[in-house]
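Subject: Sanity check before I submit

Could someone independently write out the structure tokens for this chain? I want to compare against mine line by line before I put it in a report. The sequence has 337 residues.
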Amino acid sequence: MKNTLNVLLGKLRMKQLQLLIALDDQKSLHKAAGLMAMTQSAASKALHELESMFEAPLFERSKSGMIPNQLGHCVIRYARLVATDLTALCQDVAEIRSGRGGRLAIGAIMGAIAQCVIPAVNRLHAGYPNLSIEVVEDTSARMLAQLDEGRLDLVIGRAAVAADPSKYQYHPLADEPLSVVVGYGHPPFPKKEVKLADLADHRWVMYPSHMPLHALLEREMDLAGLSMPDNPISTASTFVTVALLQSSADLVSLLPTATADMFIRQKMLRRVPVKLKSPSQTFGVVTRKGGVLSPPAGRFVELLRQHTPSDHRVRPARQQATRKVQSAQAARKRKTA
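---
Independent answer below. Compare away.
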């Protein structure tokens, strides 16, 4: 490994990495060479040099073009990461020189936005008024892919959903309590406590099957002695969920409590007094292992920890339990992979 690293540090050129990316996109050496403004013979020589460094071919030649093999996919992924990081470096340098102050890209799951991310962003902006801040709201799995590609500086979510959680640094931040909700047009519930069985005539809007909150609802249904609904509407979008609930009094859903509260205050949703038996999900700060956060990103993480509501913070015992759960999830994924 040391010899390979020395070879890469001594001989690898950015132009070669760009050629790999172009080959992956174009599936043709001729087209990739044209895109790179190189002759085909120069491109072929550059690819041969790369394959010599790794002592193995990176592409399979087929009727459909040049297709990366397993090693090729690995090298191309890191080539894209390096290219993205260098592009971000150039952008940051340009923005700092122009007085705009750089850029920070944050990914966050829905349940972390209202009570954790937004207050920290506002305080960060006060300290870095020239900083360009981008906030992406999506599922943890999709945002981890963007983190891998260098498009996000950090993610507020769950590392356990990754195929290999050990690739990331994960620091638990807060619990994510959940609420069962309906549209505001739904008649108020007369009971102080409603059972899931009481919602049998409602149709569920739920998270896709690969998401942790889908598994939590499945567990709640099982504990209540109920089967999962046969005809749910599946979406990971907060906007779609709220719009659907508002459109029909026959729909019900499960949302992070912090998100639900925001829409309840605006009289868009109504909480259903269902007492859930499962422990709250936990989310945290996810970064690339071995990566170094920029000063604004580091300050943002500090602000997150300082201003996360105390009743939602993860306690030490809870952190230990969370690590055990994540280790078990990772082990199950390895067995089924």
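---
OP: Matches mine. For the report I'm noting this point. The first strand starts at residue 59 and ends at 62.
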